[in-house]
Amino acid sequence: MEKLRKSKKFDEKELDDVIEKLANDFKLDKKYKDHKLQGELSGFRDCHIKNDLVLLYYKTETNEIRILTLVRLGSHSQVLPRF
Questions:
Q1: What domains are defined for the chain?
Q2: Per-residue CA distances from 65 to 57, 68, 69 (Å)
Q3: pTM, to two decimals
Q4: pLDDT tens digits, residue range 2-38?
Q5: How far is CA 14 from CA 48, 52, 64, in A?
Q6: 14, 23, 65, 70: least CB-packed within 10 angstroms?
Q7: What value, to the nearest 5°, has the Cα angle with vertex 24 and ends 3 and 62?
Q8: CA–CA separation, 54 vs 64, rounded Å?
Q9: Taking every pair of C-alpha atoms in the chain, what is the biggest distance, in angstroms?
């Protein structure tokens, strides 16, 4: 996270806004390219905070409690190295 803060392609406020929308079940703007993943990562989703800054996450629900789990944040090759 520290490396990202120092880079010019990271906007912490934008990331916070995306996480807040995800946590509150709001649909993300199309520019974030939010989508389901397939294959080994079925059940996960990713969205693009910036062109090559990807957030990997998944949501679960238990007894009417919704949980947002943030898995990884980084470049596409860091987040999805085998895909």
A1: 2-79 (3.30.2310.20)
A2: 17, 10, 13
A3: 0.86
A4: 666 666 666 789 999 999 999 999 999 999 999 999 9
A5: 11, 14, 28
A6: 65
A7: 105
A8: 28
A9: 41
Supply 35's token pair: 């989508």
Q: Phi, psi (5° rounding) for residue 71? A: -95, -50
Closest alpha carbon to 56 in 38, 80, 77: 80
Q: Using alpha carbons only, what angle is made at residue 15 by residues 3 and 29, rounded to the nearest 5 degrees?
A: 140
Here the tokens at position 80 are: 């999805």
- Residue ranges of the alpha helices (H) in 1-83? 2-6, 12-23, 76-79
Round to whole Å and give the CA distance between 57 and 42.
11
How far apart CA 32 and CA 61 sit, in angstroms, is 23
Q: Which residue has the tokens 């090559």?
A: 52
Amino acid at 59: K
